[in-house]
Fold this sequence. Notes:
The chain has 147 residues and is mainly beta. 0% of the residues lie in helices and 51% in strands. A hairpin with an 8-residue loop joins strand 5 and strand 6.
Amino acid sequence: MPTPYARYATTLVASAARTTTASSDALVMPDDIVGGTFITYCSSVGTATTPTLDIAYRVTPDDGTTYFGVLRHAQITTASSRYLNVCFAPWLQAGAEGAIALTGGVLTANVAFSRKFTVYWTIGGTGPSITFAVYFIGFRIPINTGM
């Protein structure tokens, strides 16, 4: 008999040294994921003056033409890790309002998460070279295939 929730884990952005603001290619969240944890692991900020790294998650209402930043980690300024716990099951959460922005501090407002999404990073400082990776560990509902 399956457990109520099965685990799911994936690398969203592979570890690499980056120097500019950019976005991942479109990523796909499996339909049966009900929530989980986004993890940013920053292993190095190099020798930049006042280095900053902001990580945001952007959803799309039109399958990839338009994206909106709806979740984000607190800004990273040193080698460290950040995580966001999220729930995609609207019946388990209270309503919330949040600003749509790619920077500005942690944002974990309750959101409906689109199947297609991107990870967006903003890198700041003088001469930055920041090494980081982004992961997702989630829970999926087993599909009942009948007996």
